[in-house]
């Protein structure tokens, strides 16, 4: 297939591009390199040293003989460029990662909220709009999030996208209908993915676009089979308070002897998936497109659930690192249970890579190797969900701990 990977320079976009190229597909990355600009804005860098995208693709070609093409295009702002590119290349499929993906970054300030909404919603809409205008029958695979469902405990498993409901008619009968599972976003970032869902419903219904939405959990790990091929193909690995995600952060913190930063009681239960499984799921989704005129295909892209404090305790035991119980900078339920259906990927052949000591210590080893690149003052998560919460989360003089809630 000819596949365009929108956002192919990012944390999942890069290993996905390598995985699809390795599988024999013709891969074109479209990216505005915004993730690199945000690193500059925040004054942070990936734990692993990343080369330019041009250098990365050059090394891939030198090592494997395969080419990955790169195009500097901003999906949200350069509509004409995007449309021209699509008209010229007519890809069979598009994988859409080109969105700002950090919840804490989206909540930093009013400017960051505006940026996240404008960037994410426009990128998705521009893409859908261009496919219709050009009459392309391209399969669009979008990286959504488990966060569209919210994290309240409902006592029932979360289905894959659609919920059967019974509605009482005026005549007193009950009719059944399948609706999108009610959206319940916990951040501006998650809200943009809920808005994306509505755009997909409309374009699938009105223009018969073929769309797959992948509701992914928290990705952990760093290497995939292809990123291991050469040191310069290494994936990015975020540890800072905005872009670092919980399990990878704990592993890096353990590697540098930084107390594990558990928010609140650590009672949040979340869905997880290893980065290797993430790229496999995307390939499976590409190979199983919905029919034209069919409904939006939705998969839950996760393999296991864990409570944050259980992860912290496991890593603390494994490495001897202490746990810091911190006031939560987010507005979220202190405790939640989470049961998620994920049979669709399993039935299509996914063999989950679950949390194992071997893989966890491999990540700690990667983190130790690059520990000299960590700026400890960038570890605390200080982006607060409300102004009231902000008063409780300023850094203390060591830049290590957060003020406790009074
Ligand atoms: N948390 C801690 N300590 C930390 C960091 C996080 O206790 O040092 C807690 C948070 O308060 C939260 C949970 O861990 O309860 C998860 O936080 P996270 O930063 O790992 O994940 P999140 O903000 O939800 O976002 C990440 C990705 C996002 C993706 C989402 C999937 O950045 O792109 O959509 O995971 S999901 O969480 O399933 O919605």
TrEMBL record:
Gene3D superfamilies: NAD(P)-binding Rossmann-like Domain, UDP-galactose 4-epimerase, domain 1. Pfam families: Epimerase. Pathway: Bacterial outer membrane biogenesis; LPS O-antigen biosynthesis. It comes from the Bacteria. InterPro entries: Epimerase_deHydtase, NAD(P)-bd_dom_sf. Residues 3-291 form the NAD-dependent epimerase/dehydratase domain. Belongs to the NAD(P)-dependent epimerase/dehydratase family. PANTHER family: DTDP-D-GLUCOSE 4,6-DEHYDRATASE-RELATED. This is NAD-dependent epimerase/dehydratase family protein. It comes from Aliirhizobium smilacinae. The lineage of its organism: Bacteria, Pseudomonadati, Pseudomonadota, Alphaproteobacteria, Hyphomicrobiales.
